[in-house]
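Example noted here:
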Amino acid sequence: MGRLDEKSFEAIVSAGCPACQSAKVEIKSFIDRRVLLMLADPTDAGRWVHDGEKFVDGTYAIHCASCATLLFETPDCPRCHSPGGLAKALGETSRMPIPKRCAGCNELELIALALCPASARYGTGETPKPKALAEYGEPGHHMVAYACESCDAAVVTQKCPLCDAPGPLRVRP
């Protein structure tokens, strides 16, 4: 699990802000995003492919949406818990190179999975809709794996994709 389990996450967001009594909170989390690539360039904006458990698992900050009171924050990497890893995760670009073509069959198109920082508001009565805080190629957007649909070749990073800490990585929900 991340620094918050589902029970403690729910307790924080359902309590709202103790300073201004607002029920709306802004949550920042690293979550899974699928990106379609051609010649290593994105062909779409990407699509969220996480579930609620992964959203909670990647949470690194929760603030009041009204007065910005800090309700939760961790400086550790959301993926591997490396001390101080969050700064590297947010400030550095992806270390996983994406090839222009599949090494197995020379296909031009690849599917990639990234961990991307996102922000979502909770407490509005609607299901939170994440907003990407980094796009492909920008600091914070980290490639985790890529695959070729034509030949089923796949490559997965063996180090922490966010902070580059050595494996093994902890199991995600």
Residues 6-15 form the longest helix (10 residues). The mean pLDDT is 90. The chain has one domain: 6-156. The beta strands are 25-38, 41-42, 47-48, 59-64, 70-73, 109-122, 131-132, 142-147, 154-156.
